[in-house]
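Q: Give me the 3D complex with pyridoxal-5'-phosphate.
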Amino acid sequence: MPQEHATRRIFLSPPQIGEREREFVKDAFDSNWIAPLGPHVDAFERELCAATGVAAACALSSGTAAIHLALRLLGVGAGDTVLCSTLTFAASANPILYQGARPVFVDSERTSWNLDPALVAEALARLRARGEPPPKALVAVDLLGQCADYAGLREVCDAAGVPIVQDAAEALGATWRGRPAGGQGRCGVFSFNGNKIITTSGGGALVSDDPALVAEARFLATQARDPAPHYQHSTFGYNYRLSNVLAAIGRGQLEQLPARVAARRANEAFYRAALAGVEGVSFMPEAPWGVSNRWLTHIQIDPARTGGVTREDVRLALEAENIESRPLWKPLHLQPVFASFVSDLAVINGTAGELFERGLSLPSGSALTEDDLARVAGIVRRTLRA
Ligand SMILES: *Cc1c(COP(=O)(O)O)cnc(C)c1O
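A: Here is the predicted complex, encoded as structure tokens.
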């Protein structure tokens, strides 16, 4: 039915769910492990450790919750400073505000578009020059599924005693120097939100090679209940755990992770081939230190070389054909919510701002067909050639 095909919406990054998820969820129903936690949560955590090569994992209600717990466990409190990548989703930095701390945003390098270690060093130097204490943590983001330069970041952070929280929410299944993303910092964060490479419909995880840190996260995420027959609390906690039903979905999804990475990388390769030679279009580079999961295929459109056609023109042309695409994350130092935190401590050189102005993420779901991809690429091509 060609007419139906012509109007079926192509989404940016929809979930892809299958029979295995249904089997695991059926088991949760049949065993009455609907709540609160349960065997699928335990198994999902074990399987996540196996898939990511970390010693311990705690399944949580969201990636944001995982970042929040990480910051609290690293002792981030009121008035403290936390360095954070500016080129990311707001959820990377919101938990800094939950803790009453001050985010200091740092710009990107052009190899991976992630935190530039030299600029992080500059941020540390500015704090020192002011006689301020060093940051309590650094939130490093693995943008669109590509790992940051952890060799460079660790060198700078280790020298200053600053622990790294790796926001790998977008990077499950990617690698850094041959090792799975998520284990490069003091702790790592994953998201299983509906649009990520795998999903539990909503969820996240905190992982670390320090099992004590993860045990502490589990304690805080379960209302910080002390061991006692009655409800006893010596500190305040959160209700941040993942349900057994959602972990069941996650187990089915995790089995598919290598296939999902392959599918997303194949999308990117298709778009690259289909848009080869189109003047003014370039793709997000792949850094030599890792393999991206290509969560989202991302193009840059340079209006100086497209005869003035902008990324917004392309986005609107796709939208007119019922196809969803999305600008790159607007840098956090440009977001109204964080405006009051942008001071001369922030190290901004314009890289993230320029990438944002030119950047468009194309439909990248793991279930896209070649027809879908060709349809998208054809519209991008036509718009840029017009
Ligand atoms: C999705 C995402 C988060 C938040 O994860 P949720 O599970 O939606 O809370 C954090 N950081 C980045 C970079 C993300 O893309």
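A quick observation: The two ends are 29 Å apart (CA to CA).
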